[in-house]
Amino acid sequence: MFSHAIETSPHYRLCEFSSTPAEIAAQLCQREGFIWMDSSLVTPGAISLLTAEPVAVLQGHIDQDWELVRSALRTPRASAGGLYGWVGYDGHFVLGIYPHGLVYRHDTGLWYEFGDFKLQNAPTAAQALLPASSAPPLHFQPQVTSADFIHMVQRAQDYITAGDIYQVNLSYPWRAQWPQEADALALYLKLRAISPAPHAAFMRLAGTTVLSASPELFLRMQGSRIATRPIKGTRPRFTTDPARDTAAVRELTSSVKERAELLMITDLERNDLGQVCEFGSVSVPELWRVESYAQVFHLVSTVTGTLRPHVDHVDAFRACFPGGSITGAPKKRASEIIAELEPHARGLYTGAIGWFGFDGRSQWNIAIRTAVQKDHHITFHVGSGIVADSVPQHEYEETLHKAAGILAAAG
User: Fold this and answer.
1) Which of 32, 131, 266, 375 sees the fewest Cβ atoms within 10 Å?
2) Choosing from 190, 232, 331, 402, which is the catalytic residue?
3) Is 402 designated active site?
């Protein structure tokens, strides 16, 4: 998340306690509408935000009800807090309005409060409130067979050969029963320990619990500045074997297929930003950067631009959604092929989790490596980008690498 200049802001007040974000989460997680925007993989300037008890919850569809979001942002409020929640791949959104909360600066270890937000328990007692590390195992099962997924890949390649698309992202879900005694926060704490991520989140909103360990930034906006960081290209980690780990990086960076796939999606993202940015302002300061995560290496690029006058963050989000890295190129036709080939609705998966801030800052992840618990089930999806020279079996194996973090946390 953004590193705010909160030390000098009149909207933030320094808190005199030294609890960790996990300890504060344990105090707040049973409050209605609990939100934890969690920089569990700490990057320079990272902050985490925790809040609960929204003054209202907006729900609707991005095509019909998006003006509700703009209207809420235009309502006069203090310049702290915002609208936090998610937008599903299908466009359905759930956003709570939070004018209060806590911010933790990872670089200083200091807490700040904004709005009228008070902890109910003494911070010194926070450690005792953490959920037990042991939790009942979850028995996730893939909802398609390996043969089914390989057939999906082959059909997608037929469309590529026919010239319909250049690239498409295909996915499938894993599903498990949710035991009555299960603790979602305990599961999330295991997940963030196993798979720390820069754009992680834990949310309980509108009867749904979301646990995200996403490494991917969909949009970051500050005033008129906008950036996106698409991911394409994956290799598994070998953390106990440094030689194999290094070889995996070398293989990823030298892969013509992976580099070409990221270049396609980077061009698509340049086009998306070009719809809302000033002419000539869109640039690619990073291309084919390798980033390391607990289970995998990824190739990442960065695309930036300057929003045109009168284009706000709500407009920019709508123009770019859903992200190109999880649909394909061209985006419209790839989305149609996804709807045809994938036998299960994506739900939140490959939508976005994040916030529109009252202070002119917004940040959204791509909702990958994300589990959704509702009623008696918990579900997550995994996927892979398909191009002309993809090897279907290898693409299936890539989905297993991406599932490894959640499966390890669930075991």
Assistant:
1) 375
2) 232
3) no
Active-site residue (options: 113, 216, 258, 395): 216
pLDDT digits (tens, 9 = 90+) for 126-184: 554 555 556 678 999 999 999 999 999 999 999 999 999 999 999 999 999 999 888 99
The question of whether 118 is a catalytic residue gets the answer no
Superfamily of domain 141-177+222-347+375-410: Anthranilate synthase (3.60.120.10)
Higher pLDDT, 294 or 219: 219
User: Tens of pLDDT along 61-84?
Assistant: 999 999 999 999 987 666 788 999
Domain assignments of the chain as residue spans, ordered by start:
141-177+222-347+375-410
The Cα–Cα gap between 113 and 50 comes to 10
